[in-house]
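Hey,

The postdoc asked me to send both predictions to you directly instead of through the lab channel. I've kept everything plain text so nothing gets mangled by the mail client. Protein one:
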Amino acid sequence: MRQIRWLWNIMDASYHKRHIFALCLSVITSLMLLINPALTSKLVDEVIVAQNPDPLIPILMIMLCVKFLREGMRYLMIVTLEKTSQNVKYNLRVRLFLKLQYQDAAFFDVHRTGDLMTRLSADMDWCRHFLSYIDYVVTDSVVMFLSTSIYLFFVNWKLALTLVMVTPLLLAITKIYSKRVRPLFVEMHDRLSEMNTNAQENIAANRVVKAFAREEHEKEQFDGRNAAFRDSNLAINKLWLSFYPFIEILANSMTLITVFLGGLFIMKGQLTPGQLTIFTSLAWALSNPMRSLGNMLNDYQRFVTSANKVMQIDLSRPLITDGQETKPHEPVRGKIEFRNVSFGYKSQPVFSDVSFTAQPGETVAIMGPTGSGKTTIVQLLARFYDVKGGEVLVDDLNVKKWPLQMLRHGIGTAIQDVFLFSDTVEGNVAFGNQDLSVDEVKDFARRAAADEFITHLPEGYDTIIGERGVGLSGGQRQRIALARALAMQPGILVMDDTTSAVDMETEQYIQKQLRELPFPCTKLIIAQRISSVKDADEILILRDGKIAERGTHEELLRLRGYYYETYCLQNGLTPEAKEVAE
């Protein structure tokens, strides 16, 4: 029931009365099913048996009016339910999208994109399906069964009692089925998520697949997951088919009981022919709810499984939020301080006791082997994760006390793995600052060495970039990403291997432009090229979870450590040759 209460709370308050009204129409139209069988009984006893044609036309006209009125009310009911269910789906879609926007990075470390897309599409549609179909079918069935049973007891309690006695057997079978089918629906949902995740990853990485000629391998992978999803569906259907014959036999037995016992009661004078027509007309009203009980349970179990998956997103709360200590602050000026910082992903430590300071306007570079935690520094600075020990300060204030939006707006980030949106070049550059004029967009693109190739695109700055920047080279995507970061005019500019895919001449041009920016900012450079970091005010070498070396370019060369070895390697020198060169 908690899933139903959750959906009810998501529905706009103005739609609550409409939904209740629609369910009331369901109750009324179900009760109206008793009218025509009663009129049919009157028609048999008072017209056919009594050989009296006078009431024939009035009875038929009333039956026709009841039929038209009921169908009109059913149409109004279905339209109303569809509107209320679409209202919930719309609200849920907006609500979940907003939830995902403000989730922290740890949430996306756990949840796969394909699984999230399944929850936002198929699972959400089952939530809508419950409100537009399942709830009124259940209402119809319950009202139809109860009202028919009561009415038949008034007509002939002995025959009615015989029919109702079949019900406990049907309920017992249904309970057993429900208990066994529930875990199968959970498994089916998991198989669907795995299949969608596999398809999403394959589509996103189609160029990698083609580059390694792995189409057949990927096909086999997808076939395996597709077969697993098919088998889970078949398992549910097989289970239903194993119960279906028993439910169908018991449901149909009501008609046989009606004809057999009804005939005996007529011969004994305990039932009129007209009353027998009531039983034969309404036997389906008792058997149909039982017959459809299995399908309703299937749909309900699917709804519960899907609703639980969607609720996990809706009820999840980000761990990184603005806390009670958060207070308004002036824009980021650029001072960075890591004070005895330790961090690890789950049980895997990354670094410990890391300390360094960057004053406003300074340039600090970070180098180190792969996996040493260079990018993690950036993620802690923007508070995508919280430190395990120590503290990170921006402008002498712990990042936990900064409003998240203000902190991140003051940090412009350009990373090696560039993500560009399916938008115009201008829209991508101005993504973080929508107030930029066209001339300002072009100026920042020029500073990122992107203006020249952008002007040669078919429509210049109005050219639509394909998904993730398809059609652009790696270097071109990196330069647009750098222009996007510069356009924010941040107090702190982070460049994580931003120029790894550009040539040396372009890199020198970009470095010159970065020294002549029209706004003050502290630069945090993560790179593997000596040429990218040698002019920094301080260079940090992360190694084995600690800062192994620190200093300027000349100081680190004299240390003869990791930086010195990297310098020799990139310049084609041996340590001895380097000493001679000095």
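Protein two:
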Amino acid sequence: MRVVLCTTTYLPELNGQAVFTANLAQGLAGRGHQVWVVRPGAGLRFSQTTDGNVKVICLPAVQLSFIHKDLRLALNYRQPLRRLFEQIRPDVVHVQDPSPFCQCAVREAKRRGIPAIATHHPGPEIGAPYFARLPWPFKPGVEAIGWRFVARHLNRADAVSVPSRSSAQMLAVHGIRQAAVPVSCGIHLNEFTPLSENKRDETRMQFGLPADKVIGLYVGRVDVEKRVDVLIKALAALQDERVHLAVAGTGASLPQIQRLIRQYGLENRVHLLGNVPHQHLPALISASDIFLMPGDAESFSIATLEAMACGKPVLAAHASALPELVGHRQNGYLFQPKNPQSAAEGLRWLLENRDRWKAMGQISRRRAEQHRLENTLTRYEALYRQTRPQTAVRRPSGQALRRPAFRPLMMLAGILFVLFSLLYVSAPLTASAQVGVENLPPITLESLRRLIILTIEDENSLYANGGLIQALLEKGEAVQFVLLQPEHKANPGTAAEEGAADANGEGLTARERIRRWLEELGIPPETVDIFEIEENKINQWYQEMREKWQSFDVQVIPISK
């Protein structure tokens, strides 16, 4: 069988879709099928490589790193896809996401009478992590448009697959007409096995993990929807020096996580390992004691399944597909999503029941055996064959595809999304000096050091520069907010300030209002500090800060109205 797999992400990128697509491609090729993977490349030229017996075709693309580091947009893909289909003459086309080039592949397959199968990977937060930077007022609308966009794409396919039962139920709620087929992503069960004691200590030494501590391990992206902050707060609430946390992965929220670690004084108990190559994950997982999965929008979680195959008890959020893998107090503990106290209680329960870890690990292993990759390959082979004769309909060559009535709306939404991303990241990268700091030159991100001072004047100035704040945090800068106060509001909490807050009908202090604005911008308030300074004392305060922090530079960025 000639199979074309279309995806925007593929190994060595580390995320669930990339790992699944690589496993599927290599597994099908190992069974004698001819497999082509089509994906956006890293440059503006068409190229072809190989991954074992799999041919990987890279379309011309641009890297949209200002939205997310792993996001690529294929360019000029229609003609290359048509030529590719002419040369390959695939028996089935299987797309992994609703990106424009994947939708084009589905339309081209339908035009040629080739069965098209679409797999939906995202969980309930369909825009994560790409919509994370949008301000809150725009998010619901963009999410609604996004779901309609996805529904239109999936309804065009001849068959739809999802990695879990919860994902199938989710699609039914969002208007997918045909029943989605749950097919586990599967794992290489023989690669994920428990380690011997000597190998365990050797692996911990290799990753800089203490041999005499209980290691809770998280593997995955460090983005907002993954809720790694919940683990940091739970570790702080637990107050048990025996327990350490290891985080294998990177992402847009890593600077906020680093700030939380410093805020709670957990530098010696949290180990940030960065991106760990996939071939090293089996040893790392086996060398840990407890696997942690705090995300509340998991459509499946390959990482959790790999940990279960290694015989680990799992602490996971009671949300989305995770309860399909983890039985509460059977092979782990399910805590309330987004609740650090509940996660801390789960850790405490696991510590108190350490004598049950071996039995829990055995249950995890038995459950993982049901998801071996061989079963997944068999299911997809059957789906490919069943779909081909039953649902593929050849369109007359002269008949044009009916274009969606809301395509202009989709194009407008895409343009607005890119514009917002550019505005919130690129536009505020320079700032002119004002309000008592006229002597400072314009500042760019390249010239910044560790302590960044943002002078905030009002709500509009904060909203308009949310992208600058996010960009600073993502670069690992320590951000402080300076709320400039007129002389009669010099002291926070005075009657004058409280009266002003009451006049606004909210009863909030200026500091509390900034905290609220940060939350609406999707910026964790605990990642910043706030000072309240009189306008006529800003220069004096600025000099004092420079003297206080002699070990590194202090930069001030005034934010205009």
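Summary for protein two, as requested: The mean pLDDT is 77.

Thanks,
C.
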